[in-house]
Design goal:
The protein is mainly beta and 272 residues long. Strands 1-2-4-5-6-3-9-12-11-10-8-7 form a 12-stranded antiparallel sheet.
Length: 272
């Protein structure tokens, strides 16, 4: 299924109430968390006028099921002079699967600085797609090192870089470009946490799940163009991993920052 507004954006079904569906992009019935984050953002945007999202924070409460519709309840927490706050609860069968907070701001000029774009080994044109079949709902991702089926796990430092962009037209409205970035941002975070441990996703007894996710949007951007996710994972401890990413446009502009915490549980070795 392609990343299009008609298939991703939830539809209004009442005052501050929206309903949508999430595709089964990995097969089975597991709901991809990045999709619900993107849909929650679009539901919040539907209650905001003339302002752009500058930050969002999401907590994954229960696993979602792709066979069920998702209801998005929006609370209009604050409409201030410069900032607007929205809270979204995503539910399936009346049970919350995601709690989402977002803040919106009027566009304004002020002081500016940013970290320079980091060095990278290859540009996107020198890499192949992580998913040549295009199953990632219209998001194209090209990693510096792509895990392939049957690849032997090896220990690597907790740093990672990927290029990503939308395969599909998003139109001119910033909210759809932000939703596409939010959607794609869930893909590379947990793999970065796993790299120092030589974990493969088909490892028997492995349990993994995103716990929370946050994004700060620093400036407008065009997600039709390639963007570099520069990722690292400072710590994995107590069955939880933490990763962060800075996102740059090809022109070197820093457009977003992303953080995520995830659960990673592996079978403990049996004592002799």
């Amino acid at each position: 299924m392609s990343f299009t507004i008609s298939t991703l954006a939830p539809a209004a079904v009442g005052e501050n109430l929206f309903r949508g569906f999430a595709p089964a992009i990995f097969g089975g019935t597991h709901l991809y968390g990045g999709c619900v984050v993107a849909q929650s953002l679009l539901a919040a945007y539907a209650t905001v006028e003339g302002r752009a999202c500058h930050s969002l924070h999401a907590y994954f409460i229960h696993p979602g099921d792709t066979r069920l519709p998702i209801t998005f309840e929006v609370d209009r927490d604050r409409d201030g002079g410069s900032f607007t706050t929205r809270r979204v609860t995503a539910l399936q069968n009346d049970r919350p699967i995601l709690i989402f907070m977002s803040s919106f701001q009027t566009v304004s000029e002020g002081l500016k600085h940013q970290h320079a774009m980091p060095e990278f080994a290859h540009g996107p044109d020198a890499l192949i797609s992580d998913d040549p079949r295009g199953n990632s709902m219209g998001i194209e991702i090209r990693s510096m090192e792509v895990p392939r089926p049957g690849m032997v796990a090896r220990v690597r430092p907790p740093r990672h870089q990927v290029w990503t962009r939308s395969r599909e037209p998003l139109g001119d409205e910033l909210k759809y470009h932000q939703a596409a970035l939010a959607y794609s941002s869930d893909f590379p975070m947990l793999p970065t946490m796993a790299q120092p441990h030589g974990i493969t996703w088909d490892m028997p007894g492995l349990h993994r799940a995103s716990l929370d996710h946050a994004i700060w949007f620093h400036r407008p951007f065009d997600f039709h163009a390639w963007h570099l996710f520069d990722l690292d994972s400072p710590v994995v401890a107590n069955t939880r991993g933490f990763a962060r990413a800075t996102v740059y446009g090809e022109d070197g502009s820093l457009v977003a920052s992303v953080t995520q915490e995830a659960m990673i549980r592996v079978p403990l070795p049996v004592s002799p």
